[in-house]
Design a protein that fits this description.
α11 links the parallel β4 and β5 (about 290-295). Strands 1-2-3-4-5 form a five-stranded mixed sheet, sandwiched between helices. The protein has two domains: about 15-105; about 115-345, no CATH class. By secondary structure, it is an alpha/beta fold. The chain is about 50% helix and about 10% strand.
């Protein structure tokens, strides 16, 4: 009597993995994103267990370890997962192609990718709020050397259209040409490291350029971050408005279609200037000009971004956490944080939130 070969399951053998102590998840998924990540893990783990040339020979302890590493890669996003499969597990070319086809499932990996982008943005907002308003950490935060560097790396804070924006030499030259309207003590598109602590407390301006929907149209972002002790008043609002008018009329950009977005950000706006700041934005939003001027506090900037992400935040069931936000900054921006902030654990102090 011949032995009938054992039929392979037609879906991931999750129950068998659980019985053998191999499955790296101890509870059911609680959010839509966790469910998608679990489904992707099951499919990739199943594929590896069937096709990887070494996988079938591994001891159970080694398989459990590989599954734990695989889970971490899935939770970090599709790019990390692809790197793991290529560089760590060293899949043969044919198996990499099979896996690439699996990861092309738009309904799965693209949603996971987007969820990670949204989660990281929400964590960044939590982290920025902690740096700005936690009464214990705030005295140790160097605004232009730490906070400003983080903001300059995340231009999406000023609009999703700038998420993939780049530096632009011509734009920088024009901004510097009209610098006198803002005063000499402004660093424009300088490497933040070059600004350093050796110089007097200054304002920081950075810019980005991106293409709009039409290939012949540019969008320019110009952001001025005020020095720590400067409250935005009538003088600062007039300066950024005059600067915007001069820069947008520069001859270098008269022959191309450009939409400009100027931002002035500070800790607080003087009481007598808040209505003027709101009026300034309303005038430009309703005008035929090709530029807008936004005058906001840090608190307003964070709140506006949270409002944009609110629907996705509810869908992801994301819970705001000062500790998670701080850990995100420590993990992603170690070169931007001083020793006290880098070593800080869970923030305990109340917020002193202006604006």
């Amino acid at each position: 009597m011949t032995n009938t070969p054992q039929r392979e399951p037609d879906r991931p053998p999750v129950e068998a993995w659980q019985a053998q102590g191999l499955y790296p998840f101890s509870r059911d998924p609680e959010t839509p994103v966790e469910l998608l990540e679990r489904q992707l893990f099951d499919q990739v783990a199943w594929h590896l267990s069937r096709f990887h040339p070494v996988f079938r020979t591994l001891a159970p302890e080694a398989v459990a370890l590989q599954f734990r590493v695989l889970r971490q890669a899935v939770e970090c996003g599709p790019e990390e997962l692809q790197a793991l499969l290529t560089e760590v597990l060293n899949l043969p070319a044919e198996d990499r192609q099979r896996m690439a086809e699996l990861l092309k499932d738009v309904s799965l990996s693209s949603v996971i990718r987007e969820s990670h982008v949204v989660t990281q943005r929400l964590q960044l907002l939590d982290g920025l709020e902690t740096l700005l308003f936690d009464e214990v950490l705030r005295p140790h935060v160097k605004e232009r050397g730490e906070l400003h560097r983080i903001v300059a790396r995340n231009p999406w804070l000023f609009g999703d259209e700038f998420a993939l924006s780049v530096d632009n030499r011509s734009l920088t030259e024009v901004l510097r040409k009209h610098r006198e309207l803002l005063g000499r003590n402004v660093a424009i598109d300088e490497p933040i490291e070059a600004v350093g602590d050796k110089r007097s407390i200054i304002d920081l301006m950075f810019s980005r350029a991106t293409r709009r929907h039409q290939p012949s149209t540019l969008e320019h972002l110009v952001v001025e971050l005020k020095a720590p002790r400067v409250a935005i008043g009538r003088r600062e609002i007039n300066q950024i408005s005059d600067y915007a008018l001069d820069v947008t009329g520069d001859e270098r950009f008269l022959s191309v279609k450009v939409k400009w977005s100027f931002w002035l950000v500070g800790r607080d706006i003087e009481e007598g200037s808040r209505n003027r700041a709101r009026l300034q934005e309303e005038l430009h939003l309703r005008s035929p000009f090709n530029y807008s001027v936004h005058v906001v506090t840090w608190a307003q900037l964070i709140d506006e971004n949270r409002a944009r992400l609110q629907f996705l935040q509810e869908t992801l069931d994301y819970k705001a956490s000062r500790q998670a936000g701080l850990k995100h900054l420590q993990r992603r921006y170690p070169d931007c944080l001083g020793e006290v902030v880098q070593r800080a654990q869970e923030p305990q102090a109340p917020y002193a939130r202006a604006g």
